[in-house]
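#lab-general

N.A. 3:47 PM
ok so I finally got the sequence cleaned up, no stray characters, all 139 residues accounted for. can someone with queue access submit it? mine expired

B.Y. 3:52 PM
send it over

N.A. 3:53 PM
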Amino acid sequence: MKVSVLFLCVANSARSQMAEALARHLYGDRLMVESAGSRPSRVNPWAIAVMAELGLDLSSHHSKDVDSLNGRRFDLVITLCEDEVCPVFLNAVRRLHWPLEDPDRRDETRSPDARLEAFRQTRDELARRLRALDLSSDQ
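B.Y. 4:20 PM
back already:
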Protein backbone atom coordinates (compact mmCIF):
# COMPACT_ATOMS: atom_id res chain seq x y z
CA MET A 1 0.00 0.00 0.00
CA LYS A 2 1.23 3.49 -0.86
CA VAL A 3 2.14 5.83 1.96
CA SER A 4 0.41 9.22 1.66
CA VAL A 5 2.50 12.26 2.60
CA LEU A 6 1.52 15.92 2.88
CA PHE A 7 4.13 18.70 3.03
CA LEU A 8 2.94 21.96 4.59
CA CYS A 9 4.33 25.47 4.77
CA VAL A 10 2.74 28.90 4.74
CA ALA A 11 2.66 29.93 1.07
CA ASN A 12 3.15 26.54 -0.63
CA SER A 13 5.55 28.41 -2.90
CA ALA A 14 9.02 27.01 -2.19
CA ARG A 15 9.83 24.57 0.65
CA SER A 16 6.74 22.39 0.36
CA GLN A 17 6.77 22.51 -3.45
CA MET A 18 10.43 21.41 -3.54
CA ALA A 19 9.74 18.69 -0.96
CA GLU A 20 6.81 17.37 -3.00
CA ALA A 21 8.88 17.18 -6.19
CA LEU A 22 11.89 15.64 -4.45
CA ALA A 23 9.74 13.02 -2.71
CA ARG A 24 8.14 12.02 -6.00
CA HIS A 25 11.57 11.82 -7.60
CA LEU A 26 13.17 9.81 -4.78
CA TYR A 27 10.27 7.48 -3.91
CA GLY A 28 8.29 7.22 -7.15
CA ASP A 29 5.24 4.98 -6.91
CA ARG A 30 5.84 4.13 -3.25
CA LEU A 31 4.34 7.46 -2.15
CA MET A 32 1.26 9.51 -2.81
CA VAL A 33 2.55 13.06 -2.28
CA GLU A 34 0.78 16.43 -1.91
CA SER A 35 1.78 19.86 -0.69
CA ALA A 36 -0.26 22.82 0.53
CA GLY A 37 -0.13 26.03 2.53
CA SER A 38 -2.25 28.19 4.80
CA ARG A 39 -1.77 31.28 2.60
CA PRO A 40 -1.02 29.93 -0.88
CA SER A 41 0.55 32.28 -3.38
CA ARG A 42 2.45 31.16 -6.48
CA VAL A 43 5.35 28.80 -6.98
CA ASN A 44 8.51 30.80 -6.46
CA PRO A 45 10.67 31.27 -9.60
CA TRP A 46 13.82 30.61 -7.55
CA ALA A 47 12.38 27.24 -6.46
CA ILE A 48 11.57 26.44 -10.08
CA ALA A 49 15.15 27.34 -11.07
CA VAL A 50 16.97 25.25 -8.45
CA MET A 51 14.76 22.23 -9.06
CA ALA A 52 15.43 22.52 -12.80
CA GLU A 53 19.12 22.12 -11.95
CA LEU A 54 18.20 18.57 -10.90
CA GLY A 55 16.02 17.99 -13.95
CA LEU A 56 12.79 18.40 -11.95
CA ASP A 57 10.16 20.67 -13.50
CA LEU A 58 8.02 22.76 -11.14
CA SER A 59 6.86 25.17 -13.83
CA SER A 60 3.40 23.58 -14.04
CA HIS A 61 2.94 23.32 -10.26
CA HIS A 62 0.53 25.62 -8.47
CA SER A 63 0.10 26.56 -4.82
CA LYS A 64 -2.75 24.82 -3.01
CA ASP A 65 -4.71 25.84 0.08
CA VAL A 66 -4.59 23.35 2.96
CA ASP A 67 -8.34 23.89 3.42
CA SER A 68 -8.91 22.29 0.01
CA LEU A 69 -7.67 19.02 1.53
CA ASN A 70 -10.25 18.89 4.33
CA GLY A 71 -11.58 15.39 4.71
CA ARG A 72 -8.48 13.81 3.20
CA ARG A 73 -6.39 11.54 5.41
CA PHE A 74 -2.60 11.30 5.22
CA ASP A 75 -0.26 8.76 6.75
CA LEU A 76 2.35 11.45 7.34
CA VAL A 77 2.24 15.25 7.49
CA ILE A 78 5.55 17.12 7.46
CA THR A 79 5.53 20.82 8.35
CA LEU A 80 8.44 22.85 6.98
CA CYS A 81 8.02 26.24 8.69
CA GLU A 82 10.69 27.76 10.87
CA ASP A 83 9.58 30.94 12.66
CA GLU A 84 6.28 31.31 10.80
CA VAL A 85 3.09 29.81 12.13
CA CYS A 86 2.67 26.53 10.28
CA PRO A 87 -0.74 25.45 9.07
CA VAL A 88 -2.47 22.76 11.08
CA PHE A 89 -3.73 19.57 9.48
CA LEU A 90 -5.44 17.18 11.86
CA ASN A 91 -6.14 14.22 9.57
CA ALA A 92 -2.76 12.54 9.90
CA VAL A 93 -1.56 9.32 11.44
CA ARG A 94 1.93 10.71 12.01
CA ARG A 95 3.42 14.22 12.07
CA LEU A 96 6.97 15.50 11.67
CA HIS A 97 8.27 19.05 11.90
CA TRP A 98 11.30 20.04 9.84
CA PRO A 99 11.94 23.69 10.78
CA LEU A 100 13.55 25.11 7.65
CA GLU A 101 14.16 28.81 7.14
CA ASP A 102 12.19 30.34 4.29
CA PRO A 103 14.78 30.69 1.51
CA ASP A 104 12.83 33.64 0.13
CA ARG A 105 12.81 35.71 3.29
CA ARG A 106 12.39 39.29 2.19
CA ASP A 107 15.91 40.69 2.44
CA GLU A 108 16.40 43.17 -0.36
CA THR A 109 20.12 43.45 0.42
CA ARG A 110 20.82 39.89 -0.72
CA SER A 111 22.29 39.51 -4.17
CA PRO A 112 20.62 37.24 -6.73
CA ASP A 113 23.50 34.78 -6.25
CA ALA A 114 22.92 34.74 -2.49
CA ARG A 115 19.19 34.16 -2.97
CA LEU A 116 19.86 31.34 -5.42
CA GLU A 117 22.28 29.77 -2.95
CA ALA A 118 19.67 29.96 -0.17
CA PHE A 119 17.23 28.02 -2.36
CA ARG A 120 19.91 25.46 -3.23
CA GLN A 121 20.69 24.94 0.45
CA THR A 122 17.02 24.42 1.26
CA ARG A 123 16.61 22.02 -1.67
CA ASP A 124 19.67 20.02 -0.62
CA GLU A 125 18.58 19.87 3.03
CA LEU A 126 15.14 18.64 1.98
CA ALA A 127 16.74 15.96 -0.20
CA ARG A 128 18.99 14.88 2.69
CA ARG A 129 16.05 14.60 5.09
CA LEU A 130 13.89 12.78 2.55
CA ARG A 131 16.62 10.22 1.90
CA ALA A 132 16.82 9.56 5.66
CA LEU A 133 13.04 9.43 6.15
CA ASP A 134 11.69 6.24 7.69
CA LEU A 135 8.37 5.59 5.99
CA SER A 136 7.39 2.67 8.18
CA SER A 137 4.22 3.32 10.13
CA ASP A 138 5.53 1.85 13.37
CA GLN A 139 7.27 5.00 14.62
